[in-house]
Amino acid sequence: MSSDKVETIRSASTGTIGRAESRVRGQRLLLDSSGRPQPDALTNSEAFLAGISSCGVTLIEMHAKETGVPLAGMEVTIEGVRPAAEPARFSRITMRFALAGVSQEEGEALVATYRRR
Fold first, then answer.
1. Alpha helices, DSSP H only, in the chain?
2. Domains of the chain, CATH where assigned
3. Cα(111)–Cα(56) distance, rounded to whole angstroms?
4. pLDDT of 1-53, one tens digit each?
5. Whole-model pTM?
6. Cα 14-39-34 angle, rounded to 5 deg
7. CB within 8 A of 100, min separation 6: which ones?
8. CA distance 33 to 45
9. What's phi and psi for 28, nearest 5 deg?
């Protein structure tokens, strides 16, 4: 038997063009197309970037706890750039990590752990 973790999310149309509803484990998330003129919900691109940055927060926090590093808190700012000529692609994604309660060396080691994983 495989030990692979399988995550299933169901996304469906909502009756509003450019908006989808995703459901997982009883949770509901509305996502708008990044191409909508006035998105009301998080856009697909914003949700994608939020997934990457929140992974950085949770992975680093858990690793710090497991290794006894005194991380007091953190914030990750992520920025994705999509060129007008190719709006469906990111040409650049940058992340800035702000960590509290750790030395510069400890912070760099924590961020390096995230980058390796």
1. 44-67, 104-116
2. 10-116 (3.30.300.20)
3. 8
4. 678 999 999 999 999 999 999 999 999 999 999 888 888 899 999 999 999 99
5. 0.87
6. 90
7. 71, 72, 73, 74
8. 8
9. -125, 135
